[in-house]
Write a structure and sequence with these properties.
Helices cover 39% and strands 14% of the residues. It has a 5-stranded parallel beta sheet with strand order 2-1-3-4-5, with helices on both faces. A 5-stranded mixed beta sheet has the order 7-8-6-9-10, sandwiched between helices. It has a two-stranded antiparallel ribbon with strand order 11-12.
């Protein structure tokens, strides 16, 4: 007769371990879930029987049902899964989330979003105790799917949906502040920006146009940069927005190179990320332009590469924001404001401040 351990399709049961160890099923359960309630002799019998039968312990799903929690936090990414590892900002944010998960003894489940109808079902079926939603678009159906679970959830940087709290910074005010530095003495300023919506179309717009911007981070930063330009008495039409489909150095370099070598090259570029700004720095160097005399440049996030490049940028702590989101989603007490601090770091890539 084939023992359960010899058949890979059959998982040994707690009852079988109990019979083999000569103890009750409750003793086996306590040996795994509440070992302090089991004598050393009984625990040794359970371990020996479990090893003989190849029993790995109670099934995680069954344990979750009994204790009423999954023991893990879900992070919903509105991007391909590799984005969590490729994008420095996402990696910093997730490091903060994982710090809290490690301290609280809970797992971390990444839930990628593909744009297919199955996204909502994937969220609904996630065995998690709460959700952190990485910034997404206004029309992303996963926001309603998260809210419908009834679990504790927060959204990083927006959008706002139903009763889901938003944790982040005031992107519009921050963009206005860094924009005032970026556009000093400029006549042909440019914003190197994120996608407008989930279609991720590459395009060039001017400040007097009114495109529908469904990513709140893109919308708020564009509004702030436009505030910085127009509040100094300049025309909105003279400020351009180069919409990049992805946040990557290569994309920033390619788009900036096209414009710097065009008939109306920008003399100041404010990028919505350090990655795009670093790409623009490469493009300027390839074109033989002097920074900041010929073209001033600013970034966003103060990544590790910003200081060595002499890049003026907007500093914020995405790791702290990730930790704050995780604590809130797990229902842990937090005294931090939902709006985090930021400041402009002025370096050699910009002209004198206004």
């Amino acid at each position: 007769m084939t023992r359960p351990a010899d058949n890979p399709r059959r998982r040994p049961t707690m009852q079988q371990v109990a019979r083999a160890a000569g103890v009750s099923p409750m003793t086996v359960s306590y040996a795994y879930s509440q070992p302090e309630r089991v004598s050393a002799e009984a625990a040794a019998k359970v371990r020996a029987a479990a090893q003989r039968l190849g029993y790995p312990g109670p099934h995680p799903a069954a344990r979750s049902l009994r204790r009423g929690s999954a023991g893990t936090l879900g992070v919903v990414l509105g991007e391909r899964l590799s984005y969590a590892f490729d994008d420095p900002q996402a990696a910093r944010f997730l490091a903060g989330v994982s710090d809290v998960c490690a301290a609280e003894g809970v797992g971390l489940t990444l839930i990628p979003i593909t744009g297919a109808p199955s996204d909502a079902l994937r969220v609904a079926q996630a065995a998690v105790d709460g959700f952190v939603v990485w910034t997404t678009s206004d029309d992303d159906p996963v926001l309603d799917a998260v809210a419908d679970t009834g679990l504790s959830a927060v959204v990083h940087a927006g959008p706002r949906r139903r009763n889901l709290p938003v944790i982040g910074i005031d992107d519009r005010a921050a963009a206005a502040a860094v924009g005032r530095v970026a556009f000093t003495e400029a006549r042909r300023p440019l914003v190197l920006g994120f996608p407008l919506d989930r279609s991720r179309v590459r395009q060039l717009l001017t400040g007097d146009q009114e495109p529908e911007v469904r990513f709140p981070v893109t919308r708020h930063r564009w509004e702030g940069f436009r505030d910085a330009w127009t509040h100094s008495g300049q025309r909105a039409a003279d400020l351009r927005l180069a919409v990049c489909p992805v946040n990557h150095v290569a994309e920033g370099e390619t788009f900036a190179a096209e414009l710097l070598q065009g008939t109306d090259p920008p003399d100041a570029i404010a990028a919505m990320s350090d990655e795009l700004a670093l790409g623009a720095l490469r493009a300027a160097a390839s074109a033989g332009l002097r920074v900041p005399d010929d073209v001033a440049l600013t970034g966003w996030d103060d990544t590790d590469a910003a200081a060595p490049a002499g890049l003026t940028t907007l500093a914020q702590s995405l790791r702290e924001q990730g930790a704050h989101c995780a604590r809130a989603a797990l229902g842990r007490p937090t005294t931090a404001s939902t709006s985090h601090d930021w400041h402009v770091v002025v370096r050699a890539s910009t002209r004198r401040q206004p």
